[in-house]
């Protein structure tokens, strides 16, 4: 059975856990006023997160991607004197207890500026700080290692093999809190499914298969031939995959607003023997998920786990 999820925001709500402030705004404030503003933003994000999670539970959605900006400017030096982890310990405990009670899986996807295989020491330092921040949020909530941080390999830098090797070398430098959560996704321009699978097997971490990325960037590999190997990288953890539909034939890399139901049903029917989570990456977020669910019901396809506790 599968579980469907969506990323970051509810489409029909302005109350999402992604409120933020800017460095320019904060720079105009005194240190005391700055911390007050940051506290207000984070408190709003916690309120909105709890509302969104309650909505998800009501609609039997147990997979959700937390926005990277949940903690405003968490890794910027302008917030270095703000101990948000200590100040909001109660809120982290409350959110974590709710998440665990209802069997929700929270994941994250650090931004495109975080590049582990970079050849720039400053970028590497910033990447490690960003990954560490994301891991700390999940640690503070008391979540297990199914709450993963999804990243891409990064740049090719004119030499794919060297770039893959550098990813492995830099992975070894990460703190254990990040290593236990980091997973790698194939991309749509540089590193194929097989590139990423080989890397993940080498360094012993899970691979997130992005079906759409594989369709637009591959070397002719049969996706289904490699699924058992991909799933094996997850060990005892529940595998996670990404699914989206191309915006158009002319713009195949861009994500469509909705999921192409016929394509999804064809794919998921071939995956019906597996228990896994599927993150839908599309513009219409939860609306697209609910629409896909209705389309599957009309087609008589019953592959989704709805009830709490179903695996």
Automatic annotation (TrEMBL):
Query: What molecular functions are annotated in GO for this chain?
Result: endonuclease activity; hydrolase activity
- For the keyword DNA repair, the answer is yes
The record's listing under SUPFAM superfamilies reads:
Xylose isomerase-like
* Origin superkingdom: Bacteria
> What keywords tag this UniProt record?
DNA damage, DNA excision, DNA repair, Endonuclease, Hydrolase, Nuclease
What Gene3D superfamilies does the database record attribute to this sequence? Answer: Divalent-metal-dependent TIM barrel enzymes
The record ties this protein, via InterPro entries, to:
UvdE, Xyl_isomerase-like_sf
Question: One GO BP annotation here?
Answer: response to UV
Any idea what this protein is called? UV DNA damage repair endonuclease UvsE
The primary gene name is uvsE
